[in-house]
Write a structure and sequence with these properties.
Layout lengths: L10 H11 L14 E4 L2 E6 L5 E4 L2 H10 L4 E4 L2 E9 L1 H4 L2 H17 L4
Antiparallel strand pairs: 1-2, 2-3, 3-5, 4-5
Length: 115
């Protein structure tokens, strides 16, 4: 019998992610090992095993976010994920500021064609 995978996400980062997601009761946190949110088959936030958060933003908001927070597109298993930006740790710790991006991401996911 296979052993269930355990999360290795740092507890403090998981707590910050959960605090952020809890700011919107319409968003359901999914994934036991890899926490994420999705709508209509489109993942719009993700927390990897190192505690690095990714968030999906509309195309016209990607570049301004990348410049403002001096970050990059999210990379997972060596693959650049189009439309997902890496959330810097300092921003992850600022729930109030990050909440507006979560709302933007959620609204954007609503507009995407269901998968």
């Amino acid at each position: 019998m296979a052993t269930a995978k355990k999360s290795t996400i740092p507890a403090d980062k998981l707590e910050l992610y959960e605090k952020l997601i809890a700011t919107n009761p319409n968003i359901e946190r999914k994934g036991a090992v890899h926490p994420y949110t999705s709508l209509n088959g489109h993942m719009f936030t993700y927390l990897d095993q190192t505690g690095t958060m990714a968030i999906r933003l509309p195309e016209d908001q990607l570049e301004p976010f990348l410049k403002k927070y001096k970050t990059m597109l999210f990379v997972s298993y060596g693959v650049v994920k189009k439309g997902l930006v890496t959330v810097p740790d300092a921003l992850l710790q600022n729930t109030k500021e990050l909440k507006k991006y979560l709302e933007t991401s959620f609204e954007y996911a609503k507009k995407l064609k269901p998968k």
